[in-house]
Amino acid sequence: xxxxxxxxxxxxxxxxxxxxxxxxxxxxxxxxxxADLRFPGLLYASARxxxxxxxxxxxxxxxxxxxxxxxxxxxxxxxxxxPNLIGILPPFDQPLLAxxxxxxxxxxxxxxxxxxxxxxxxxxxxxRARIEPWEPILTVEQALDPAARRIHPGGNVTYSKKxxxxxxxxxxxxxxxxxxxxxxxxxQEHAYLEPEAVVAVPGGDGRITVYASCQSPFHLRxxxxxxxxxxxxxxxxxxxYTGGSFxxxxxxxxxxxxxxxxxxxxxGVPVMIAHEREESIIGSNLRHAARIRYRTGxxxxxxxxxxxxxxxxxxxxxxxxxxxxxxxAMIHAAGPYxxxxxxxxxxxxxxxxxxxxxxxxxxxxxVTFASESQMDELAxxxxxxxxxxxxxxxxxxxxxxxxxxxxTQSVGIGRTIERVAEKAGPRPMGPKPAEGPPAGAQPATDGxxxxxxxxxxxxxxxxxNGAEGIDVVGASVQMAxxxxxxxxxxxxxxxxxxxxxxxxxxxxxxxxxxxxITVRQVDTxxxxxxxxTVASRSTTVGGTAVLKAARExxxxxxxxxxxxxxxxxxxxxLAEGFAMLEADPxxxxxxxxxxxxxxxxxxxxxxxAFSRAPDARFDHxxxxxxxxxxxxxxxxxxxxxxDRWTGKVKVLRHxxxxxxxxxxxxxxxxxxxxxGSLIGFALAHLERIDTxxxxxxxxxxxxxxxxxxxxxxxxETLVVEEPSPAGPFGAKGVGEPPVAGAAAAFxxxxxxxxxxxxxxxxITRADIAAALAKEV
Amino acid sequence: xxxxxxxxxxxxxxxxxxxxxxxxxxxxxxxxxxADLRFPGLLYASARxxxxxxxxxxxxxxxxxxxxxxxxxxxxxxxxxxPNLIGILPPFDQPLLAxxxxxxxxxxxxxxxxxxxxxxxxxxxxxRARIEPWEPILTVEQALDPAARRIHPGGNVTYSKKxxxxxxxxxxxxxxxxxxxxxxxxxQEHAYLEPEAVVAVPGGDGRITVYASCQSPFHLRxxxxxxxxxxxxxxxxxxxYTGGSFxxxxxxxxxxxxxxxxxxxxxGVPVMIAHEREESIIGSNLRHAARIRYRTGxxxxxxxxxxxxxxxxxxxxxxxxxxxxxxxAMIHAAGPYxxxxxxxxxxxxxxxxxxxxxxxxxxxxxVTFASESQMDELAxxxxxxxxxxxxxxxxxxxxxxxxxxxxTQSVGIGRTIERVAEKAGPRPMGPKPAEGPPAGAQPATDGxxxxxxxxxxxxxxxxxNGAEGIDVVGASVQMAxxxxxxxxxxxxxxxxxxxxxxxxxxxxxxxxxxxxITVRQVDTxxxxxxxxTVASRSTTVGGTAVLKAARExxxxxxxxxxxxxxxxxxxxxLAEGFAMLEADPxxxxxxxxxxxxxxxxxxxxxxxAFSRAPDARFDHxxxxxxxxxxxxxxxxxxxxxxDRWTGKVKVLRHxxxxxxxxxxxxxxxxxxxxxGSLIGFALAHLERIDTxxxxxxxxxxxxxxxxxxxxxxxxETLVVEEPSPAGPFGAKGVGEPPVAGAAAAFxxxxxxxxxxxxxxxxITRADIAAALAKEV
Lengths: 776, 776
What we know:
The structure is a homodimer of 776-residue chains. Chain A is globular and about 80 Å long. The first copy, chain A, has 3 domains: 23-31 and 472-612, Aldehyde oxidase/xanthine dehydrogenase, molybdopterin binding domain (Aldehyde Oxidoreductase, domain 4), CATH 3.30.365; 34-134 and 196-274, Aldehyde oxidase/xanthine dehydrogenase, a/b hammerhead (Aldehyde Oxidoreductase, domain 3, Alpha-Beta Complex), CATH 3.90.1170.50; 289-466 and 619-775, Aldehyde oxidase/xanthine dehydrogenase, molybdopterin binding domain (Aldehyde Oxidoreductase, domain 4), CATH 3.30.365. In chain A, the strands form 8 sheets. The first copy, chain A, has a 7-stranded mixed beta sheet with strand order 3-5-1-12-9-10-11, with helices on both faces. With 776 residues, chain A is of the alpha+beta class. In chain A, a hairpin with a 2-residue loop joins strand 20 and strand 21 (578-581). The longest helix of chain A is centred in the C-terminal third of the chain and has 28 residues, at 538-565. Chain A is built from 18 helices and 30 strands. The interface between A and B is large, with 62 and 62 residues.
């Protein structure tokens, strides 16, 4: 391997198992989530939803609501001072309150403001709406029919991109084996513990502050200001503690943040909007359902020579982050492999359903499920061990990805395969029903009821926004005279533990104990617009910004300590809460003394860093070039036991090996891998939004099967560290990648156990039981 | 004059008459002052005061208070987690709650927390304290008696400094005329509209936020954290709208901020402390009373050859900012004149009275009154016109101040004298009683009841902390994609209009309308520790920081616009909300477009500036060297009419000429000059804290004569602009200087009118009437 160690120094805090810096307030209930906040005069608001998936909005009549006691006001579309539009990319296509047309059942038509949540909700229900219903467009096929009604003026294609590498026709011509199949995945709900909530508080100084459970406070600020018709500098967004987001609290937080702010400014008092679970499911984005056709060509030794994919995503009523998801799915379609010839088309279309957007994985779980299914099908066709097939094709440093991007270091896919192979142990016991026991396998011990199988899946996931947008993060580090430091970053911690990572990075750079570091909640006033908290980029791009700011402050401390210790600044080391001579660590001064002296000597003790990913050479036509600053590579292995009678799948073993560059917090890393894997498992086995005629039928946790703690996987996290120059101390992100790995490995394990290739996620108990019953 | 123009460019916003950016919310009542803030569960706290000026504190018994309904808790000194000490300089000598000893009547002994302000106050009153009284030390003489009880362990001298320039003995030996006198001034109350108030709010994240009516939020943060025993990074101080401070809301804000924070953390709920007027007068610092002996020697042509002063300040029970006031009085004792030989001793002593600290002018009004009285006495002795004497001695560029500091530009004292001379017009009518009508004066027209006089006074006032401490300010400028900008600064606006000045500076640098700029209230989280908001340094050091930050952002905009306009960044001008070609202003792009493009191209749009005054070469033994970054120079003229019968003085005319370097906001400047002059006038004529046996007898606005709107002076502000490199666009500060000018001119005018030299301020109606009666 040509990978060079990025940081060879001894690290004190980075790499240590650190408990979450905000864990205490979270588990003791002291942490205040947006819906916990109270302000004098606080009012509550609730939206009247359309309830029909498509139609002409003829009239919205607030008068019945206004007659109710406890209803203070009802806002209509015409009450919105600004353009009444939100969205991620221009043309922003989503109204805050519908005007003229209804595009999905969760569409907000009016906002009722009441003195309590209950009264606001009753007010919303009482708003009368006259909608002339239209035949809803419910499938991708209907939407793409040239004769179809246009859901948006530009037509029903939300976004469509094509990636071309090499010559696919020639590639397939040279292939000795070709496999082909079509795969589908379903809508998935984020199902965070805390539904969406915001409070907008007018400041008495011409400014308004919005406290929000949210993912991307700067998105909120921009859209709130625009829709209020105020300069953005008059809007401040502060992230409240956020009980999960997974991509979900972006558009919807913007929507309710803007609505609450408009109501608050109009009424001159604080206004809260807090969703109930049903509203959270129907009225905010889902993971895109996908239909993906794949064709893969290889030589007889398994060498991949060509790959082709057509990705069709159902994006629902609004664009949201569909453009990025479309692109990300496309970029990742060839997997972590050397494939000389690749052609991928990726398209998202509008339908009259709840809109789809960001969801942990961001299109990658869908394509990974499909492409890793292909790999297993290819392995079967070639008679190769699935892991061996992947090993032969795994990208190596210096080789190009599907976009032709070449990394000379931190390409750990091969090592994750090896780690899994080393740890894999014997296959689970029991024959595969179709093929009989494989050579060398143990015989089944429990008769005919259980089937056993093993699935593997490899993946890569681009870290950072990369060429998808702009990848900047602001961070500030401010040291007080007592040597404690306050860290601000523009990226949010929604539970993933990034505040802890940032605290570690700052503590490491400043040479202090992590208890001397405080990481603030995100406040748009505090740091440079850092864009959205997405793309597993917190540790890399955010951590780099923190490191940069902390190093500037450390520089001041070293300069001061140099004067005090009578040595050049470079001879000073900051560690253990002291400034010490590198050459004689006993010559040391407590950092608080150094900080006080530095302040009074005029050395700056606060720095605002601006971290920007390097310019990418990327062609947005062919999609060739350097798209991401790094990739996380992973290999998952899942051993399952399938109950023939019930279809129930028990995961016996789950290995999740990821090349994370450098582990910052092993405890946090394990949490991320376990959490991400569980979402992948749920995508593959449990969760499916059921729609009927444009209505979601299971918008509650009784009917929608979110995994419970009993479904927790026996995940074993295997760490591969191939340091990357992209992140602090070599770290890469890990938030999203496990989703794809677990989902794909699960599907392959079920196929291995049952001998049946399920091509649609989720593969539920019922699906399995029904399919096995048919086989018998 | 050798002064070089500092900025010759055309200015759009700087120099314009701009209404206060926060004026609207202030006059409409929307602005929220600290005592207006409400939080769920808010409790109120009130201190039990000692009520005796000195004694042994034997016991504090909270039990009677705790038995009252509505009293939640009582905090004693032992409940303070930290050192129970605040102060400006080490050794911090002031306890939050007294333990062991009482040093002044306003000493806090315990803090009662109640469910309302009234109940908290009742609780405080019910706390039982056993104090064995000691004979209080009430005068400077008593305090300096070697046998005196020591008020603090280090003795009764708070601070003592000596300035020596040249050889004073030799100077006086060469003098042809010598005048000598001793002058006194009294304690003065800040008398801001809004008494002190803070609210401490525990954040649920291990942090605490203190909203405070305050002057120096970073002082608060440090002391609150220390006394809470928390890292400073866990404490956030946000300035609430502040209804005046004038130096007064520093120590006391720190005291009540820390007490409220300790109570809030202990009880887990927000706690407010808001003073009533009596508490505000007795329990927070006053302006130092002074006794100053002066000796001045000159040649017969008026040339000053030697000056000697002994300054004795009564500092009350605690050091507060006495060290700086001691020093500042000393530095300014020789006035804005060329004096080759100077010797000044300056000493502050402890007494058992309300402590003294910062008050607009900061020791300079006291010494200016004395030294400008000396100048008039000298003029009389020499038979010279008072203005002519000053003209002959006024500092010129290239000449040294009392500390030997040489400015080569922005030394406008001569021009202020000329401006006043030009504008002065005829003397007020009426004879001086002792001398008869001066040559050329108009005869009196109103018989014998009224006496007329004219007084002039010159002054200088050092701008910035300078060598007194460290002079750093942090500022941030953040431009949003819509081209509006948010400005944060570490210095507070307490009414003086600095937010408006900062907005102007930012608007100028960014080329936008001032309505596109929002200046935040100070938040310690947001910017570098900027030290205290004192020393008329907001415009200079603060404005420089804002300018620096804004120019960085402007640089990004220019770079982006250069790409868009296809020209080098230097060819781009930002003005009128556009980026335009300098050479062809019609080639222009709206700034919002440029800002959006800059964001998406990765140009930083936020910058945190750190402004640090240049290193000073200053000898803290002899007090020779470069102490301040600039001086404001001024000349005041006051024409008065004195009512012989009542002693009432009517100010007929008041010219206030100041060299401010560059006017940023003429409207704000006039406000500062008028307000400062009124405080000087009140110091000279109206206000006197009456103490008896260590008790303040007039701690209310019925008995303490604060000027009302009817006392408004007919001030005419005359602007002299000698640009200084110290401040943005050449600006210097103007907050404090008018106080000294008006006070000294008033005293000289009364002396001129009555023929009597009053050597003690205030010169009240009663004083005048009594003195004139004696004369008759």
